[in-house]
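Narrative summary of target 7.
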Amino acid sequence: MDSRAGESTAAAAEGELAQWVEHGDLALLARTERGDGTELSVEQLFGRAILRLRLYFGWSQRELGRRARLHQSTISRVERGKQPGLSLKRLFALCRALRVVDVDLVTRKPSVPPTELEIMLRGDRWARAVAAADRRILAARVAHSREASSPADSLRLAQHGTLTPGDR
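Modeled conformation, tokenized:
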């Protein structure tokens, strides 16, 4: 491989990394990694994101481990996509240590896009899913604020974990 080609590839990768870190866009990372035609697992994509962020901050695996309170060997396995069953506790510790504030989860697109008729009949599935999730989250917040509105309700919540309609 020509050294100039390697340098331009490295420079392009650094530019993509800076853009990815600046915007915190996992979709961009996935597009960058899949651009060469290889299909990476979710674990590998996540591992590469962790690796890139760690290198961006200039930290060693040991330093990231110290900040996340995880062992260096765990960081190594995560970065290589070889950490099966990564717990949410560890995932959140890594995200906090790396100052991740926003995560976009992007699903694979169908191999055949929907036709205009399908969109007209069923609507946009993603927009419907986002709206339904937002409604559920809002309803849960409203219900939670109502549940703890009186001392008696708080006591029942503490004892039973939930309120029934008869408790009102």
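The chain is about 65% helix and 0% strand.
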